[in-house]
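In response to reviewer comment 3 from the previous cycle, which asked for concrete evidence that the modeling workflow produces usable outputs, we include below a single protein chain processed end to end. The sequence was submitted unchanged, and the resulting structure tokens are shown without manual editing.
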Amino acid sequence: MPLRIMKIFELEQVFDVESGGVLYMSPKIAHHGVALNDNCTTLSFGYRTYSAKEIYESINKSCLIK
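The workflow returned the following structure tokens.
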């Protein structure tokens, strides 16, 4: 799935997370993370669930290999 970058991002809320903290963002929520100092790292990652077709094809391929 390609990365979707918005041309216009309108800020609605701001959350400052303390060192060692984690902020969970629900799927499909636009966000922009910024490290507040040199002692922290901002990471953003997503997880896409597989469709039933993709799971079936994967199982089918592994069965054909054996």
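The chain is about 20% helix and 0% strand. We consider this sufficient to address the reviewer's concern, and the full set will be provided in the supplementary archive.
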